[in-house]
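Incident log, entry 3
Record: Phenylalanine--tRNA ligase alpha subunit (354 residues)
Problem: checksum mismatch between cached and fresh output.
Input:
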Amino acid sequence: MDDLRDKYLGRITAAPDEATLEAVRLEAVGKKGEIALKMRELGRMTPEERQQVGPSLNALKDEINSAIAARKAGLEDAALDERLRDEWLDVTLPVRARRSGTIHPVSQVTEEVTAIFADMGFGVAEGPQVETDWYNFDALNIPGHHPARAEMDTFYMARAEGDDRPPNVLRTHTSPVQIRTMEAVGAPVRVICPGRVYRADYDQTHTPMFHQVEGMAIDRDISMANLKWCLEEFCRAFFEVDGIELRFRASHFPFTEPSAEVDIRCSWEGGTLKLGQGDDWLEILGSGMMHPKVLAAGGIDPDRWQGFAFGMGIDRIAMLKYGIPDLRAFFDSDLRWLRHYGFGALQMPMRHAG
Ligand code: PHE
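Fresh output:
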């Protein structure tokens, strides 16, 4: 009896899987198993022997059955553990491979410009794209009859019938943010104002929606020399090309006096735009000393304060820096173009030391 127990209990504990365990079960306690055979032998025993051996065989059968049940439960647990280990899934990982989304050159350049001017102490201000006639024109010393209004190819918003206030406009430049900023923070102040602007114009270097960044610095003794230094400093940091050449051209804006437009030397040879070489000039910004009437419109006393302002085309300088020949492609949403000219999400705008 002890030999039988040792034999089967040993094999049960050693059974590596359920199939082996089932084979052991049949061999031990199955209908034709060893215990059943022993039971049959009871018939040939004396009543005394039978009384002793019968219950022992039954007890052994029970013991083997429960050992098998225990081993089976153990094997099932181990199988489950293994499955849990194998089928473990990190639900925080992306299911599909990452898409190659990129940062649009306009966003990238806006960040670069912001970083460079931040180093020169400029904050950032924003204003609405739908502007009132007052902020977009009058406050900037562009009265109703002024030819600059026609020159700007303005998009006008519709007014309800019977409403005879002047129509709102899609802002034609970021200059209205000058007025809004003066009203909000007064003087002294130093800000840039990046954003979308609109003009009805369409060719290789003009789109009906484009981007400008306005700059404005107001203090007691700001001069044209400060303006020139800031712009040259900016271009050096931004373009990162040796031989950058700027041309300051006397010009006229109603909101600055004196005024200057700034062009940058470039070449279009072979359809590629290159900087600091060639015989072409691309206008990148308008600038000047803020007109006393503009300071006054912003609630600032022109006898105590003066300031410079400039407005620069973000798309223009993006084209120049990254050699993109056609502005219209910026807004086509062509995935091939976006992948080619786009920037990685982690490509932070860097300010190079020196
Ligand atoms: N607002 C002008 C334009 O859009 C640019 C400008 C801004 C000029 C500030 C002078 C001062 O062309």
